[in-house]
Amino acid sequence: MAARIERLVTSGQFTLDGGTWDVDNNVWIVGDDHEAVVIDAAHDARAIAAAVGDRRLTAILCTHAHNDHVDAAPALADLTGATIWLHPDDLPLWKMTHPGRDPDEHLADGQVIEAAGADLTVIHTPGHAPGAVCLYDPGLGAVFTGDTLFQGGPGATGRSYSHFPTIIDSIRDRLLTLPPETKVLTGHGDATTIGAEAPHLQDWIARGH
């Protein structure tokens, strides 16, 4: 059976640099009737486990380590036996939320994570966070961008460990080169496509944020 994509929205808080904000996060489940992976275990491990159901959860893939994307990862791993994957450049951010537990595996640029008929290629896209990654599956026609690219522009770069010129380079060189019809499935909010966002690159640069 071909892989499919499911979206679960969970709610909680994002905390960094002494500030706290209420947020709704997209949790993406990719798999078939038997096996799945979760992209960004946000806020509510039990709700995510319920959405996975009786499927075998093989991996929890973290697009980056801001607390609102990883706060439920250890609990979900404990519930399901799944392994947690994170790019090592985001370990300093991970340690802010989970000082006593390391991720199980490291994501690397170009690596392919196989799950239930899906082949998710890791694209290292620093800028929003040093170890931010996107996960691209040409078969599904989708790229999971975390907080790197949203409908309407780049992710925020105004806080620690983020850098606006770097996120622009990542988006221009690594994402906007994907086929224009590719669905952009984001960490928050609504989906878009590469083709819908690509014409606005110069506008984002001019705005500078």
Key traits:
24% helix; alpha/beta; six-stranded mixed sheet; globular
Describe the structure.
The chain has helices spanning 45-52, 67-70, 73-80, 91-97, 164-175, 194-197, 201-207; strands at residues 4-16, 19-31, 35-39, 56-61, 83-86, 105-106, 112-115, 118-124, 133-137, 142-146, 149-150, 153-154, 183-186, 192-193. With 209 residues, it is of the alpha/beta class. The strands form 3 sheets. Strands 1-2-3-4-5-6 form a 6-stranded mixed β-sheet. A 6-stranded mixed β-sheet has the order 7-8-9-10-13-14. It has a two-stranded antiparallel ribbon with strand order 11-12. The protein is globular. The mean pLDDT is 97.
In short:
24% of the residues lie in helices and 35% in strands.
Amount of helix? 10-25%
- H/E topology pattern: EEEHEHHEHEEEEEEEHEEHH
Give me the Rg, rounded. 16 Å
| Largest beta sheet: strand ordering | 1-2-3-4-5-6
- Poorly predicted ranges (pLDDT <50, ≥5 residues)? none
Q: Beta-sheet strand percentage?
A: 35-45%
Q: What does the main sheet amount to? A: 6 strands, mixed
Q: Structural class, from secondary structure content? A: alpha/beta
Give the termini separation: 42 Å
**Oligomeric nature of the chains:** single chain
Number of strands: 14
Helical run tally: 7
Shape: globular
Average of the residue pLDDT scores: 97
Blueprint of the fold:
Blueprint: E1 4-16, E2 19-31, E3 35-39, H1 45-52, E4 56-61, H2 67-70, H3 73-80, E5 83-86, H4 91-97, E6 105-106, E7 112-115, E8 118-124, E9 133-137, E10 142-146, E11 149-150, E12 153-154, H5 164-175, E13 183-186, E14 192-193, H6 194-197, H7 201-207
Parallel strand pairs: 3-4, 4-5, 5-6, 10-13
Antiparallel strand pairs: 1-2, 2-3, 7-8, 8-9, 9-10, 11-12, 13-14
